TrEMBL record, chain A:
Keyword terms: Prenyltransferase, Repeat, Transferase
General function of this protein: Catalyzes the transfer of a geranyl-geranyl moiety from geranyl-geranyl pyrophosphate to cysteines occuring in specific C-terminal amino acid sequences.
GO BP term (any one): prenylation
Reaction(s) catalysed by this chain's protein: geranylgeranyl diphosphate + L-cysteinyl-[protein] = S-geranylgeranyl-L-cysteinyl-[protein] + diphosphate
Organism phylogeny: Eukaryota, Fungi, Fungi incertae sedis, Zoopagomycota, Kickxellomycotina
Name of this protein: Geranylgeranyl transferase type-2 subunit alpha
Example of a GO MF term: Rab geranylgeranyltransferase activity
Family: Belongs to the protein prenyltransferase subunit alpha family.
Keyword presence, Transferase: yes
UniProt source species: Coemansia biformis
UniProtKB/TrEMBL annotation, chain B:
Cofactor: Zn(2+)
Record flagged with keyword Transferase: yes
Organismal lineage: Eukaryota, Fungi, Fungi incertae sedis, Zoopagomycota, Kickxellomycotina
Lineage: superkingdom: Eukaryota
Name the record gives this protein: Geranylgeranyl transferase type-2 subunit beta
Organism listed in the record: Coemansia biformis
Amino acid sequence: MSAARRPSVHGRRRQAAREPTAEERAQAQRQLEQYCALNHKVMEQRARNEFTNSALEATKQLLEQNTELHTVWNYRRQIFAGMEAWQDESERQRLLEEELMFLQQVIRKNIKSYWMWGHRVWVLKSLPHAEWERELGLAAKLLAVDARNYHGWNYRRFVVSRLKAAASDAAPQAVDEQEFAFTTEQINKDCANHAAWHNRSKLLPAILAARDEAGRDAVLAAEDVLILNAIYTDPDDQNAWLYCEWLQDIQRDDPARCRLLRQRVSAIRELLELEDDSRRPLIELVSALVELDRLEPGAVADAERGECIATLRKLAAIDPLHIGRYDDWGSALGRRWGLA
Amino acid sequence: MAEGSGSGHGELLVDKHVEFIKALDKKQDELEYWMTEHLRISGIYWGMVALGLLGRDDALEREAVVSYVLGCQNADGGFGGHTGHDSHLLYTMSAVQILVMCDALDKVDAEKVIAYVVGLQNRETGVVSGDEWGEEDTRFAFISVATLSFFGAQARLDIPGVVDYVMQSMNYDGGFGSGPGGESHAAQVYTCLACLAIAGRLDLVNRDRLSAWLAERQLPSGGLNGRPQKLEDVCYSWWALSSLHILGRPHWIHLPRLTAFILSAQDPSGGIADRPGNIADVYHTCFGIAGLSLAGFDRYPLAEIDPVYCMPRAVVERAGLRGWAAHVPAAWGIERDAAPRQ
C-alpha cells in the first residue's frame, strides 16, 4: 500500500498547453542527461563499495537534486562509516557538523522528505558531541515558518526526548514545563493549531503529576480559560472541543467528571445564546448531556433528552454533510431512552 | 484550463485513465520518469490497483511485471523500489501485493521474505523498523503484519508487541500518529486500524471518537483532508474513508459530494490529481478510484476494494484474507456481506 512516502506530486498546477521552444527542449534534455549520468556514477561507486571523498561529493550532488533516494542516503552513511577519518573522534565531529550544514540546504528544498529527516536523526545520534539546544532552536525556527509542520513537531519531540535523557535529576521536569509553555504560546498565536493542542495533551499528565492538589487545580483552571478563549474565538473549530472532551478522560473519578460536564453544559448554553445555530457547540451540548446521563442516571431530565433529539434534527438540517452521523446518534438515543 | 473542467459532467474517464497508466512506462524522455525511479514498484502497485478496480487488469503485461518485481528482490530477502535499490518494507509490501494480484506469489522464496520482515522487529520493544537503519513508524507495524499475512506467517511476529506500539500511538482525539507522541493523521489512522483489524484487536479503538474525528475531515468542497485545518486532497478519499469503512461508518460523511470532488480532480487527458486543476499522477489516480469504489460510485461498474488491504476485494478473498471482517467487535453491530457485491 506504500502509505505516504508518496511522490512529491502535490499542489502542482496544470499549465495551459504550450509547445516548449527549441531552447527549452534542449535545456530539459541537458538536465535529464546530467541527472542520469550522475545517478549512474553514484550507483557504480556504490556497487564498488567506494567509501571516498569523491563518493561523498557525488552523493551530495545527487541528493541535492533528489531528496527521495533512500538508497543513496543509506550509501552516504556507509561511506562515512567506511572512511578512515571516521575512526578519529574530532574528525568525525567535523564531518558530521558539515553534514548538518548540507542538510540545512536540503530542508529548504524539501522539508517533507522522510529520508532526509531520518538521516538527520542518524547524524545527531552519531555526533560525538551533539548540541541539542541548537537542534531545539532549529525545530522552533521550522515551526515559526509553518506552525503545523508534521516533521517539525516530530523532530522537536525527538530533540526534547534527548534533552530530557541528558538532563540532571530535576531537569526533565523543567523540560516538560518549557514544552508545555511552548504549546501555550502556539495556541495563543493560533487556537486552531491541532499539533499544539495534541502535544499539550501528551504533556499535561506529567505537568499535573508534578504538583500537589492545589497546584493541579490551578493548572486545570488555567486549562479552562484557554479552552474558553479558543471556543469564543472560533466556536466551530474542533480543537479546543476535542481537548475539552479528553480532559474528562483524565479526571480522577466520576463525580469529578460530572462536575466538569455540568460546567461544560452551562458554558455551551451561554455560547448558544450568542450563536444559536453554531454546529460544533450544538454537537458538544448533546455529547455532554448524553455522557452526563450515562455517568449519573437520572441527571438528565426528560425535557433535556427531548432537547438532545431535537438538536440532532436541527444539526441534520444545518449540516447535511454529516447527516449520517446525526441519524445514527438520534436512533441510538431513541432506543436507549425509549423515545420514538 | 478552467478549474474542474475535467469532470466531464460527473463521468469517470475510464479509458483515459487506463491509457494514462499504460503510458507511465513510456516517458523515458522526461526527467520525472528518472526522478521517480526509486519508487517504481509502488507506482506499478498503484497502477495495478487502479486498473483492477476499473476491471482492466489486462492492460499491463503480467509476465513483464512479475519478472521486473522479482528482479527487485535483494539478497536480504526484502525488495527495493527498483532494481539495484536497497530493501525497505514499503517496497517489500508493494512487491508482495503485486505478486498476489498477478497470482504469482509462488514465484518468490517465501521464507526469505518472511525472514526479512520478521528480522525488522525489535524483540524487546515489539517495534518494527522500516529497514535496517531503524526508522520507526506505525506504518511499518501495519506493513509487517499485512505482508506476512499473505504468507500465512503473521504469527512469526510478536503480535502483542506490535499492537502495544500501535496503541501507544493513539491520541486524545481517538486518532493515531506516526508513533508514540505523534499527531493524529488520517493516513496513519488507516495504517493503525488496518493493523489492528488483521490482528483482530479493533476492540481497542475508541470507535465513536475516532469516527467523529474522521467525519470532520470532510470540507465544504466534499473533499477530505488529513488533519484539521489542512487542505482537501484526493488521497484522503482513501486514507480517511477506508478508516471509516473499517469502523463501519462510511455514511458519516457525504459520499456523493466526495464523489463529485474526486471526479472534478480528473485531468481531461487522463489521471487524477490531488486537487482540481493540478497535475495528475498515478498515486492520486489509484487513491481517487479507490475512494470512488469506497463511496459506492455507481455510474461505472467499479470493482469493490478491500478497506484493509487496499486491493480488489476479489483478490483478497482469493488470498483467503477476508477473515479480518469476521473479527470486528460484535458490539459494533456491523453486518458485512459474506459474498462480494455484484
